[in-house]
Amino acid sequence: MTQRSYRLRVTLSELFMTSFTHSGSTDLDLLAQRANANLADATAHEIIGWAAEATGGRICVTSSMTDALVIDLAARVQPGIDVIFLDTGYHFAETLGTRDAVAAMYAVNVINVAPARTVSEQDRHLGPRLFGRNPDLCCHLRKVIPLEQALAPYRAWITGVRREETASRHGSQVVEWDRRRKMIKVNPVVGWSQAQVDAYIEANGVLVNPLVAQGYPSIGCSTCTLPVQADADPRSGRWAGTGKTECGLHT
Ligand code: SF4
């Protein structure tokens, strides 16, 4: 066999065709489990390469623009790949600048995805500062729903989720079946440590949001992100003091 051991003979395209006509999502769930087992020791480039081949190129990257780590990895494997950025209307100027710099510097197609309502329209309908009164609803309206609509054309999405980021991500796998969205979720750096991330960024000159150097290791909306001490949990600045740790995209 000339193919690498992590390659799977059955592509997602074939399985999507059979699943829609015969057995729902079971086959895709199984494929994700098999791919996850076979890709356990693969590099991030190999994982993305498998996803690109298995989906016939119908993949995208999602990015918060904290850095361009996964964008850099994906652009090397599939130049021109779509990068989805959820433009909530509450981002730091530095994050929007990073988005624009990514679009200019990398061989990717950045897609800016906005919610159905602008911030002022949401304020008129639901009252001001929804993020302070009901952050789960705010995230649902401004992140979760827009992402689900943006992901509809694809068969897999690539994320920068890493197991060590939060307790709720400890069980994340390299390849997962995303039941809610009925598509494959690919996490090529899921097992990477922060030291590995830093080393790749340094070695490859990866673009990083300037806020990271100002104490923001994890960056979300400006209304819900605080700087943290150097030795603190990197995500402790997100929704600080509310008990909320995830926006709902990965849960
Ligand atoms: Fe709203 Fe804050 Fe969620 Fe942004 S992070 S969508 S402002 S609750």
Tell me what the structure shows.
With 251 residues, the chain is an alpha/beta fold. The chain has a domain at 57-209: Rossmann fold (3-Layer(aba) Sandwich), CATH 3.40.50. It is built from 9 helices and 6 strands; from the N terminus they run H-H-H-E-H-E-H-E-H-H-H-E-E-E-H. The protein has helices at 12-23, 26-38, 44-54, 69-77, 93-105, 119-126, 130-133, 135-151, 194-204, and strands spanning 59-62, 81-86, 108-113, 156-158, 175-178, 183-186. Strands 3-2-1-4-6-5 form a 6-stranded mixed beta sheet, sandwiched between helices. The longest helix is centred in the middle third of the chain and has 17 residues, at 135-151. Mean pLDDT is 88; it is low at 1-10 and 14-23. Bound molecules: iron/sulfur cluster (SF4). Iron/sulfur cluster (SF4) binds at residues 88, 90, 131, 135, 138-139, 142-143, 220-221, 223-224, 247. Iron/sulfur cluster binds at residues 88, 90, 131, 135, 138-139, 142-143, 220-221, 223-224, 247.
